[in-house]
Amino acid sequence: xxAPAKITGVNHAAYRCRDAEQTRWFYEEVLGLKTKAAIAFDxxxxxxxPRRYMxxxxxxGNGGFVAFFDSPDDAKPEHFERKDSFDVHIALEVExxxxxxxxxxxxxxxxxxxxxxxxxxxxxxxxMYDPNGLQVEISxxxxxxxxxxxxxxxxxxEEIQVWCEKTRAQKVALFGEEALDKRA
Length: 184
Ligand SMILES: [Fe+2]
Fold this sequence. Notes:
The protein has three helices and eight strands; from the N terminus they run βαββββαβββα. It is α/β, with parallel strands linked by helices. The chain has two domains: about 10-140, 2,3-Dihydroxybiphenyl 1,2-Dioxygenase, domain 1 (Roll); about 145-180, no CATH class.
């Protein structure tokens, strides 16, 4: 079998937002991303589903986007409760610690709390929540990034094997053997 085409980056990651303007304020004015598109639809494309929604795209420096759906016809307040960062979070990158600190100050000057920086060894990060309950991390690679990640790459197959053996029984009890099948 031929190798698949190389995936070169994230085109967009998309989330639900409460309100397009509230979200634009945060991503454009607080984080400095450009609003590249804000497209209103009166039904779901390619279907006769009558939900109205807006799809809004914020441009990142490398050509990718963070995108949102503002869909009041099916939105619920609980969609916008703060989500556990293990369930979902997004980390946006800036270059260098000076840029990270300047971004933190800029965010705080808009009345948003921004915790950190926290030193994770390979990156340093600041954290906040967007208006939709999504945790946003601003991170910068440390000078040790390549060295640390190159080492991690060499040990990761074994690390996964050891971890999954250690936690297998707990997961089988939780999910069942079938759900853990590779093609489930
Ligand atoms: Fe992260």
